[in-house]
Amino acid sequence: MSDIINCTKCETCGLYSPVLQMPSKQRTQHVEELLRQTQSPSAGELAEFRLVVEKSCKAIQDIDQQISHTEQLLKSLRQARADTELQRQDAQSLLHPIRSLPNEIIAQIFSNCVHGWEKHDAWWTVDSLNYSVAPWTLTRVCSRWRALALAMPELWTYIEVGLDHGARLRTSLRMMSLYLERSQRLPLFVRLAGSAVVDSSHPIASLLESAASRFKKLSLNIHSLSLQCFSDTYFPRLEFLQLRVTNWRLGDRNVSPFTSLNAPMLRTFSTHRDTSWSEITTLPWSQFTAMLHFSAFDRDELVHLPKMANLEELDAVVDEQYETINEVMHLPNLRRLTLKEN
Asked: Of 171, 185, 200, 257, which is the most buried if we count CB atoms within 10 A?
């Protein structure tokens, strides 16, 4: 019988490459016959089979050694590839153009990443107390970005928050405290939304009330009972107020309107057609110089129009019979009137 395996040594890597001379995968007819019986082979056949066993054991050892060498080589090659890929990624990262941008450009990009008062629908709320949105995400990219984001208090002046935080209340309070701290003493632009009924003892409402002196714009899309959170609160910087408040009832409990709104700088008021004007009768009407989204066909709203003697801009929604607005439009300072059909 011929040799089962021969090995040749590679002059480059020093490894042995097997040159297999495997016997036929099919047994010979004679071997098949011998295996089907218990008769002993002839003396010559026994000698030949002993030689096959001896050479096969040696061949198996050689093959196992070659497998071990090949596995080690494959492991080394895989590690070398991983190391090379890591070097490539590091070099590519270090070559990225953003590393050469000055902080002033990155700061402008940051400003465009955060939500702003004018960037989306007035009544659609993006929860600022969410780590997956800017500016929170900007602080978790690298140390340079974090330092820059924390050095820009203007990134933290626009706050949108829902009052229905439930189980997340503790986390929300911590995040709100960070927002107020990082915005330093800059004016705040605040949007609040939520169907839950809250009062001034609500932790988030209480925390925001502590910063009411910094409010410049305030938008409320809340339950009418929650208006009491902001009654008797002093807003020395508030210039813009937006309300969407519906006259919902809880059983036989009466809705309590604003008792007062102390905002000496308040000049612009914006409302929504869903708002129940019976809840906001005590607003400082005479201070307003701009009224937005005024429903001129709503009698509850029209009765307040004469109170706004200093009004300079009126954005009104009318129906086909909008001549009713002429009955009460005694506004000597009015400079701009915009009428839109309902």
From this structure: 257
**If we measure between CA atoms, which residue out of 317, 314, 211 comes closest to residue 269?**
314
Q: How many residues are recorded in the chain?
A: 342
What does the H/E/C string look like for 49-79? HHHHHHHHHHHHHHHHHHHHHHHHHHHHHHH
Would you give the distance in Å from CA 84 to the centre of its chain? Answer: 34
Task: Check if the beta carbon of residue 208 is closer than 8 Å to that of residue 176.
Answer: yes
In sequence order, the β-bridge partners of residue 161 are: 192
Residues with Cβ within 8 Å of 242's Cβ and at least 6 positions away in sequence, in order, are 122, 217, 218, 219, 220, 269, 270, 271
Report the relative pairing of strands 336-341 and 158-162 from DSSP bridges: unpaired
Tell me which H or E stretch contains 103.
helix 103-113
Contact (CB, 8 A) for 142 and 150: no
Distance of CA 143 to CAs 77, 146, 148, 149, Å?
35, 5, 9, 10
Please list the pLDDT of the chain residue by residue as tens digits (342 residues). Answer: 444 445 666 666 665 565 555 555 667 888 888 888 888 888 888 888 899 888 889 889 988 999 999 999 999 999 999 999 999 999 998 999 988 999 999 999 999 988 777 655 555 556 788 888 899 999 999 999 999 999 999 999 998 887 765 556 777 888 889 999 999 999 999 988 877 777 767 787 788 888 999 999 998 888 777 777 777 788 999 999 988 876 544 443 444 455 567 899 999 998 876 665 555 667 888 999 998 888 776 676 777 788 888 999 988 877 765 555 565 567 888 888 888 876
Distance, CA of 156 to CA of 125 (rounded, Å): 16
Residues 6+ apart with CB under 8 A from 60: none
The SS3 of residue 196 is coil
- 């009466």: which residue's tokens? 254
